[in-house]
Every structure is written in structure tokens, then in C-alpha cells.
Amino acid sequence: MTGTFVGMPTFPSAARTALADTQLRHNLAHATGVIRGKRAAVVGEVENWEDLRLAGAAVKDRALRSLDSRLVELEESLTARGAVVHWARDADEANRIVVEVARAHAVDEVVKVKSMVTQEIGLNEALEAEGIAAWETDLAELIVQLGGDLPSHILVPAIHRNRAEIREIFRRRMGEVGRPAPDDLTDEPAVLAGAAREHLREKFLRAKLAVSGANFAVADSGTLVVVESEGNGRMCLTLPDVLVSIVGIEKVVPTWAELDPLIRLLPRSSTGERMNPYTSTWTGITPGDGPQEVHVVLLDNGRTRALADETGRQALRCIRCSACLNVCPVYERTGGHAYGSVYPGPIGAILNPLLKGTGDPQTDSLPYASSLCGACFEACPVRIDIPEVLVHLRAKVVDGHRDDRVPKPEALAFRGAAWAFADPGRLGRAERLSSVAGRVLRRRGKASLGRLPGPGGAWTDARDLPVPPAESFRDWWKRTDGGERE
Amino acid sequence: MTSARDEVLGRVRAALRDVEGADEPVVAPPGAAAPAGTSLVEHFAERVADYRATVVQCPPDGLAAAVAAALPDGARVVVPVGLPDVVLAGIASPVVDDALSAADLDAIDAVVTCARVGIAETGTIVLDHAPDQGRRVISLVPDRHVCIVYADQVVADVPDAFPLLDPVRPLTWISGPSATSDIELDRVEGVHGPRHLHVIVVDESS
Ligand code: SF4
């Protein structure tokens, strides 16, 4: 598994560094705020949004419940339409397949559609090691790649860069790898996008081999689906002679008709649009139109490990919309890099441990990167109960460290919480205590509690505790008879 | 040595030991209808225009004129082999696509195609690349796409489009011109696809 950014510190220390970066915090707060607003507006337009979420979750569940036969069906449909199907147990195996296809055609470069899965398996690095250049063609990915940087958000990977930084990156680096940026490049977004268009068109026109992921793979028809905005996806899927698509086995949708609710959910949740500018679907080979050699790599790389986890398997429903990132108070402050993985934010906090297993300190710190506020579940178009999975994984992490001689701070924090939760009287007292502290701090005009003493200190190492409300939930419930007499 | 295929499928089966399959396809809730007092075609035109595409409506006998008006003077225009004569009548010297190379297409200014379905609620046009629409590449490389949608091709929402589309054909769903919001979330029209989308809705009643 090469999905972790190599040498990343655990979440708490990475988060502290990110918190000190005011430019990053400013860019993030602006970006997540804008997307949240757009999403809320277009989701509000859909009268039966909740029913649609239920349908989306049910479709993905149905696919996962019989995943073995769906995968076999997908393979048959694809093969019948002229595609070559490969299976890959892990990242290395998938990378090797792509390298072999590239070698068979003697190419020394490939163009790529933005795809999480190729980042997860470290494909660019694997190709580079074989002397094959992999060109990212999504604007944000281009910015990240030219900047020698790491993506920080699923949907807008360069969310941590502002326009002035992007202009500098283009001026400095474009000429080294192809058509240079024009001399009069300004930091207007339209001008920067124009420079990317010119730079990449040259690469599209000569490309022989493209690599993509897929948002969905329809089992009964063998159709792959790529959802995008810029048209770079269409370029990659249409112009080259050979196309290799790497598809996580959880991307399966049982039937063509069941794609409908997912297509309705994704763009509204993701970019906050009624529909994204371009969606491409293709089924194997179409004679005379598009690539005439089509490969599909079905990838496990930890997905079956996640599938075996009764509570955690719902994470495989994820359609990578990034809505949970944009509503997460922890993500908004720390950004994507602190999670040390291509899958950041709330979904990353559960997906990474589920795919990789617990035991590594970096991965083990992720389930604690949350305040369990529940906003991620509310926003999730396929109703993944992220808080439930987080709590489940925390227990797993604690279990994994039970024999350690010196308990991990996370384990202590969790035990502190477990101690309080175990006895209703104790919890009531603890809550009242923290609400008294809250009243005092509020009077002094302090917005957050900073570091807590004792076992709670480990918890607040990673996050500033919000000031507790003046009245605890229990006191409120008692006073108002559960809200009846509010 | 077991193959990767057998091993992955084996792991899937082991992971699902406690799980029962689900046989009945999921029935999704219905889509939206056009707002009261608005026709489906009007709703479609408004929603397409929301993406900053140009939308014009014309009666069937005004089609050639509408196509001519959508093309800049002297533009080099590519057309699919099956473009109807009534549309061709509006194009001065069309280049018919006979397996043009990407480089050939890069030197062309505009493309005129028909479409398969229009989706009103989301302002989406779906091409299924039948002969009146042509290969995928011709509606991708030129910078201006003039797309003709007939009123009777417009459906209310996404679920109404699915049964009309054959997944075996390549499909391109287009909602406005190419766009990106990657730089500080400022929406910019046009990165790699056509930067100008010009939709002509052919409607008896217009
Ligand atoms: S977990 Fe849900 S909200 Fe988060 S990216 Fe996945 S689908 Fe979207």
C-alpha cells in the first residue's frame, strides 16, 4: 500500500503545523465556505433529496452485497465489448499492468484524467521509475504536479494555492516540461486557465496512451463513467489510441438504470452544480470512435479488508464527492495534507484505516481527527455514518494498543471518554463542570478552550475544544422536558 | 500460484460470509417536473442558459437561419456525416468528418451537431454519437459547439433520460461550456472542451 504520503507525521503534529499556516487556513476557509453555500442551494432545490440519498445508498449497498457476482458480470460485459480486463491485488500489481501496456506500445509518456485511485497506488511515481512521464491534465492536478506538491482536497486538489502562487508555478515550471507559459501571464483565473489549455493541448494531440479512473462501473452493461468539468477527461478518453482505466472494485453499480440516482446526487453534493459540465460513458470499444484498445484494471488494494469490517464496509459506498470535507470543522482548519493521504477529511479518517488496517501510528491517529459533530453524515449523499465508523475504529485502535507498556495518548483520551460515558452520573457531573468552565470563558471573551489538563489533554492536543454551551444537553432536557416546554 | 482474479474474488467472498445478496433493483424516487406555468422547453432553455451557454429558440423553418447566425463569418466548420440537409443549408462550406485527425480538427473553428436527449431540470444535453452527431472527438476539439435540440427530445429530469439512452453507445453529457473552478473557486468558462456552447432549440410553437 503506497497510499500514505511517505514520512508523514501523525495527524496531531501535522495539523499543528497546518494550523500555523495562515495563508492555508484563509484559502481553505474561503473555499469550503463557497462550496458549502453552493451545495446548500442546489440540494435545497430537490424536493425528495432524502429519498434520493436513501436510493443512492441502497444502490451501492446492493452492489456490495453481491460484489463477487457483480464483478464477474462486469468482467463478462466488458470482455464482450472488446475490453481487456485485468485484476490487481494491490498497488504494485496495478502499476505493473499499466507499465506493461505502456511498454507494449513503446510510449514514454501518458496523459491522465484526474483520479483518486491512481494517486492511491502511486502510479505516476511507478511510471516515472520506468522512464515514462505521466502528465496530469486536470487544472488543479497540473498545478499540484508542476508545483512538486501534494493534493489537499478530493475535488479541488490545489485548494491550498492562491492565484499569485499559481502564476509563479506556471512561469517557473511549464517551460521545463513542454510549452512555456506566455510572457504576459497575469494572475487572472481566466488567463491562467488559458495558459493551461495551450500547454496541455500539445500533449493531448500527440498522446498515444491515456490512463483514467472511473466514477462508476455498470455491471450489466460494462459501462464506465467519468464525471468531470474541464474537458480534459473527454480529451484523454477520446484522442489516444489506447486507454487504461483503473477501477476500484467498490465502483460497481448493478444496472444501467440504477446509475440514475447516483448521477443526480454526485454533482449537487460535489461542486454544488445541478450537473457537472461533462460526463462521459463508454462501453469497451466503439469501432471508429475513440481508443481502439481498452484495458480495465479491477483493483482490490485493501478494499476487501474494508468489506470484511461489518461496521466499516459502508465506507465503500463513497462516491468521492467531498461534501464531508467541506462541512468538517476539523478539515476546514487543518486542510488535507495533515491527513497524510490522498483521502483526506472525514472520509479519509475512516477509509485509510479500513483499507490499510490499524497498527501504524499515522493511520491510527486518523480516527481521532474528528469532533464527532455529525455534519459529515448529514452531508453525505450515500448516507455513510462516518461518526459511527470513527467510534468503531477508535475502539479498534485502542484494542490494538492494549498490550503496549506505555498507553498511547489517544488510548488514554478514549479511556477518559469511556470512563465518563460508562456512568450516567459521572457524565452528568463532567458535563456540568465543563459548562461552568464554558460560562467563565465566554465572559472573558475566549472562543475556544485550548488544551485540557489530564487525560483530556491528549484529545485537545489535536483540536481546540469549542467552548461548551452554558447549559448541558442533559440540563436542557430536564428543564424543558425534552424540548416540550422550550 | 492463484491468479489475482481468483484471489480477489476469494477475498470478496470471504468478506461477505455474513451478508445476503439483494436481488431487486433499487427504484429511485421520481425526478422534478417543470415549474407550474413553464413549459418543459422553456425550463430547458432557462437551465441551459444558467451555465452561460447561448440558447436560441426557432421554428423548424427558421433552423438554417439560426445555424448561420450561430457561426462567425468565415468560420471553418466541421459536421458529422449524418447532419440533416435542413441544418447543412445554414453552413457555408462545411467540412464533413471522414476520420479527420485530431490535428486537422485543431485547425477548425466550430462544429454543428444534433443531440439525443435534452434534460430540462439540469440543463443537460446528451449526445449518443449517432450519425447526426458524429464521433466524440469532433464535438470536443473545435472551440465552438453549435448543438441542435428538437422540442420533442426534451425530458423533465435525469430519470426520464435513462430509459432513452443505450449504454452500449458512447455517451457525452454536456451541461454548459467547459469550465473550471480550480483557481480560488472562481468559475472560468473553457479549459479544454469548447469554450462556446450555442444551443438551438427547434420548437413548432416558437
Ligand atoms: S463519504 Fe460521503 S460525503 Fe464524503 S466524499 Fe464520500 S460520498 Fe462524499
UniProtKB/TrEMBL annotation, chain A:
Domain 4Fe-4S ferredoxin-type: 315-384
Basic and acidic residues: compositionally biased ranges: 472-486
Superkingdom field: Bacteria
PANTHER family on file: LACTATE UTILIZATION PROTEIN B
Annotated source species: Nocardioides aromaticivorans
InterPro entries in the cross-refs: 4Fe4S_Fe-S-bd, 4Fe4S_Fe_S_CS, FTHF_cligase-like_sf, Helical_ferredxn, LUD_dom, LutB/LldF, LutB_C, NagB/RpiA_transferase-like
Record's protein name: L-lactate dehydrogenase complex protein LldF
GO terms (BP aspect): lactate metabolic process
Keyword terms: 4Fe-4S, Electron transport, Iron, Iron-sulfur, Metal-binding, Repeat, Transport
Annotated region (Disordered), positions in chain: 447-486
Domain LUD: 73-299
GO molecular function, one term: 4 iron, 4 sulfur cluster binding
Classification via Pfam families: Fer4_8, LUD_dom, LutB_C
Domain Lactate utilization protein B C-terminal: 396-479
Automatic annotation (TrEMBL), chain B:
InterPro entries: FTHF_cligase-like_sf, LUD_dom, NagB/RpiA_transferase-like
LUD domain mapped to chain residues: 105-202
Record's signal peptide: none
Native source organism of the sequence: Nocardioides aromaticivorans
Lineage, uppermost ranks: Bacteria, Bacillati, Actinomycetota, Actinomycetes, Propionibacteriales
Pfam families attached to this UniProt entry: LUD_dom
Descriptive protein name: L-lactate dehydrogenase complex protein LldG
Lineage top rank: taxon: Bacteria
